[in-house]
Amino acid sequence: MYIKVEVDLNETEHPKKFAEELCRILKKVYGVRKAEINNIQDVNEQ
Predict the structure, then answer these.
(1) Of all residues in the chain, what percent are helix, strand and coil, respectively (each to 5)?
(2) What is the pLDDT tens value at each position of the chain, 46 positions in all?
(3) Per-residue confidence (pLDDT) for residue 18, from 0 to 100
(4) Which residues contact 36 (CB under 8 A, 6 or more apart)?
(5) Does residue 31 come out as left (phi exceeding 0), alpha (psi in the -120 to 50 range) or beta?
């Protein structure tokens, strides 16, 4: 299963740290076998 996540972060939040924490929570709470950050894009730059 692949999941695409879009979030609105404020200026003080760091996207990479947010993504790492999301992966950690998925593994811990939901027993996900593998969670990884594949790509981080800023939609404002597109």
Answers:
(1) 40, 0, 60
(2) 888 888 999 989 999 999 999 999 999 999 999 999 988 888 776 5
(3) 94
(4) 23
(5) left
3-state secondary structure (DSSP) of residue 25: helix
Would you mind telling me the total number of residues written for the chain in this entry?
46
What does the alpha-carbon distance between residue 31 and residue 25 come to, in Å, rounded to a whole number? Answer: 9
Residue 24 and residue 35: Cα distance in Å, rounded?
8
Amino acid (1-letter code) at residue 15 = P
**pLDDT computed for residue 13 by the predictor:** 92
Those residues whose C-beta lies under 8 Å from the C-beta of residue 33, and which sit 6 or more positions away, are 27
From the list 10, 34, 13, the residue with the least C-alpha distance to 23 is: 34
